[in-house]
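Morning - acetoacetyl-coenzyme A inputs below, output right after.
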Amino acid sequence: MDLNLTEEHKMIRKMVRQFAEKEVAPIAAEMDEKAEVPFENIKKMGELGLMGLTVSEEYGGAGMDTVSYCIATEEISKACASTAIVMGVQNSLVCHGIEKFGTEDQKQRFLVPLAEGKLIGAFALTEPEAGSDAAAQKTTMVLDGDEYVVNGAKNFITSGGFADVILLFGMTDKSKGYRGTTALLVEKGTPGFSVGKEENKLGIRASDTSELVFEDCRVPVANRLGEEGQGFKIAMTDLDAGRISVAAQALGIAEAAYEAALEYAKTRVQFGQPIAKFQGIQWMLADMATRIEASRLLVYNAALAKDRAKETGARYSKEAAMAKLYASETASWVTDLAIQIHGGYGYVKDYPVERYYRDARITRLYEGTSEILRIVIASQILR
Ligand code: CAA
């Protein structure tokens, strides 16, 4: 596969790498340890255009293609996977959905400030009893005049604790199954909307994962994204985009772990020579590099499929699911080997590989578990 990266792709990698090395990486371990969100960096990412990279310039975005977006995600993830998921949810799950399904008024009110990084978005689909079975929504949205009255709870919502805009899914008609799902844009501060428990996590600890509670929360009909009953398709369409983003995140984490292991293997001396001289270590490094390269090809392939879909309208669910499945499994595997190469030093916080290992784990869970992705791939193959 000829990647044929353009000057624009090389330029975005250089720009984001510089920012990530200078601003993101130096505080990543500390933010992870304290479980604190790096708000200053998120603000700077907005100023650099990273919070609306693929949004058209007309709506405040950088108007770049999805390969550029994946490159940027990869570079931020190499430095800090927590920072990358805030960017990922904003771009792929929130901005993407509003640009594709929103009214002009919604684009002006929400998309423009989101793309400029002035507002932060969250995507609220998951519920305690609706995880992989996303259609089993319990949240209700009852039309009353020109407002929906929302009741229910969402959990595991990335950036939920501080987001300004929530893309919320729930049922306007339970009798219709997934065809009764509707999407609403809920603003922070709306009476009846509150933030519940914040999760204490294994990895991506510098990102916020919170419960959201809706009690007789009134949301104007003007904030409904798409039509009544279109919510499930909006969620699935967004998740196709989001899975490419998580795949790029996993790729970045794997690259960081591989580079750390390579450097360590070249400098760590045992039995009178650098451990990189031992074939056992060489084979690990060779396999790590090969699987990372394969991940990269799948990620960029999915990104190209998404960009082609702009013209053709074709679904890219299979390409996105394959990229996330392979890149996330690779990230877990590579980070594990990176610890192995570091030996005991890999297990302690003086070295970054234990953080990469913890951060990699979530990429096999959120935005579709590996098992759900296999279902998606199989359903596309067998169509
Ligand atoms: N694009 C457009 N339409 C789609 C679609 C897609 N990608 N996927 C499904 N659909 C449509 C189908 O065509 C079908 O419509 P028709 O009947 O009109 O043809 C309809 O949606 C229902 O499809 P299925 O019968 O396949 O639905 P299902 O109930 O069997 O579920 C599923 C399919 C793939 C399991 C889905 O529920 C799923 O993806 N589950 C995982 C949910 C998930 O990824 N959650 C992540 C939470 S978000 C998160 O993690 C964010 C965060 O904070 C980081």
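Note: The two ends are 26 Å apart (CA to CA).

O.
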